[in-house]
Sequence to fold (207 residues):
Amino acid sequence: MTTGILAVAAYLIGSISFAVITSKLFRLPDPRTYGSGNPGATNVLRSGNKAAAVLTLLGDALKGWLPVWLAQHFSSAEAAPLAMALAGALAVVGHMLPVFHRFQGGKGVATALGALFGFSVYLGLGAISTWLIIAAFFRMSSFASILSALFAPVATWLLFGAAHPFFASVAVVAVLLIYRHRQNIKNILAGTESKLGQKARPDAPSR
Fold:
């Protein structure tokens, strides 16, 4: 019963769109109407408002970490690993398919990162280090996110083993993240993927 309640709570927390909320607070256009159409920190950054992008990033990461923390502290020791794994995955699903926003959500990168930090500080630091290194060299948030998604299950397997619930959770989230970046993959291969800091075009297509 407790695990089920925590799972539903994780999805609902994940469904809160900080990109939309922050954009309203800063009187910016709805992030779903420009750039990639993705309600996430990278697209908010295309508005030119760095503060709004940072707040979006922190909010999205927090809503990935918080459900995992709640699952850890409100579950028994035996049930905690599974409850945490479900909470982390469902928070990301909530971000991707938010019930509060007609199931039109983002790609889940920051929320997944928050969940990784909830599972293990080492997992979170490994993922963010991978992202920063790739982003610094290639200046593409999407490419850095894809490679970080590929890295995360391997790191989870090394830390916890394939039988641990965290591994299945991270592997499923990685597949979802890569699927959500399918258009970005096409753009990267075509050489048309936008770079970090590039402002949105008024006529830019949706996701």
